[in-house]
Each structure stands twice: as structure tokens, then as C-alpha cells.
Amino acid sequence: MTTPWRNVASSFDLGNVRVGATRTLSVGNATVSNAAYQDKLAVTVTAVGNAALGAVADASIAAGQTGLITYSVNATGDLAGTTTLGFTSTALAGTGLTDAPLAGGSVALTGTAYGYASADFANNATFALGNVRTGDVVAARSLAFTNTLVAADAAYQDGLTVAASSTNAKITATGLTNLAAGATGNVTLAVATTTAGSLAATISTTQTSVAKAGTGLANLGLGGGTATVTGAAYDLASPTLRLHGRLR
Q1: HSE-CB for 183 with a 13 A CA cutoff
Q2: Which residues sit opposite 127 in a β-bridge?
Q3: Which domains does the chain have, with CATH numbers?
Q4: Which of 21, 138, 164, 218 is most buried by its number of CB atoms within 10 A?
Q5: Count of alpha carbons within 13 Å of 124, Cβ hemisphere only?
Q6: Average pLDDT of span 78-96
Q7: 197-245 pLDDT, tens per residue?
């Protein structure tokens, strides 16, 4: 009975990936002459080669068949490393033959793992503007957003973009764009008091995790939030004089 001939690439590019992704590398038990009379191939991962990765291999691959090494991405960062593989020629059941160790192999890895942005903010905040006069200058209000650092290195975490809108035209909400990991920025609320009326408004925000440029990765919506504005602008009284009758 002949021993199997393992067939696996010497390098594997995992590409730009997200934490939680999986990638697979094929391992073949190439037929030497007659698959019916050829051992199975057992593959073991003796060293993954990068702490951010996990890897498991198919334990039994028949002659002429292909199995997989499955990599799981567990952390952000550079995924370069070398996976060390062990191969064993596993005798077919009932033959009475013993298993035979085969020369091991290695796979050079490349790739980079990125994490999503993490939005931290005071949801359901309230901004009480009070009662003001038309024409008064009311200081802008701000709602702070932090892109909390989750990755070990900010270079491997998405930026945070926040879109903002207001239900009242007297309140203008301005969002922020591509806030870096670990940084804090503000959604600003500008107040216009040129005309009298209610300043009450609901501010809606939508957060998006924005992939690093050039990675080819997709953005991810992170949900939304709200804030409430209260207050009103009042006109002064407007005296009007009317002449009644005739002066003598």
C-alpha cells in the first residue's frame, strides 16, 4: 500500500478581513496510483503562527479528495506568520497496517484584520434651552461621541461617522465624519431665534462604522440614537398707536 501525497500551498493570503471572519485553505491527498489502495491523510496544525488566528484541519482525507484548514480571525492586526503542519499517513481500516508519519509542511500567511468602530454617547440626552427672546444669541449645544478603542491598535479600527437631523428648522444638527478610533467629537446643535415659536425638537443620529480606505471592506450601520431639545423664543410686545377723532 502506498502512502498519501499531501498537496497544500506554501503561502496563503487571508486578505483584508474582519474580526470573526473565517478563511479556508485546501489540503489534498493526491492519488499516487490507485485511490482504493492508498492511505488516508491526517492533517494537524502544530503551530498557527499568529496569536490573532485560530486554525483547525480535517483529520482524515481520503485519496483523491480535498480537505480544509480553517482559519478563524480572533483579533485585529497584521496576520503575517507561518503555520506549521503535521501529516500522517493513516492506514485503511482492516488492513492491519500501521500509520506512518510523513514530512511536515508550512504555510506562510499574509493578511490584515480590522475591527468595527464602537460608538459611545449619551443616548436620550436632553438640552433645555429655556425661554428666550427672538434675536437672542443662544450658544450652540453639543452631543459628544467617542469611537471607543476596541482594537489593540487604532490603525486597525474603523472610523465613526455620525449623521444628525432635527425635527425643528430652528435647530440645525451637524454630524461628524470618520472619527478616528480613540477620539471624541461632537454633534453640534445650532439655535436660530430669528422668529418666535417653539424650539422643541427631536434630534436623530445614525452611526456608521466606516472601513479604512483601500481595504475593500464594507461599512457597517451601528444603529442610531436620539436627543431632545426644549425651549421657546418669544417676541417683545409691539406697541401700535392709532389716532381716533380730530384734533381741534
Answers
A1: 15
A2: 229
A3: 5-114 (2.60.40.10), 119-234 (2.60.40.3450)
A4: 164
A5: 0
A6: 96
A7: 999 999 999 999 999 999 999 999 999 999 999 999 999 999 998 877 6
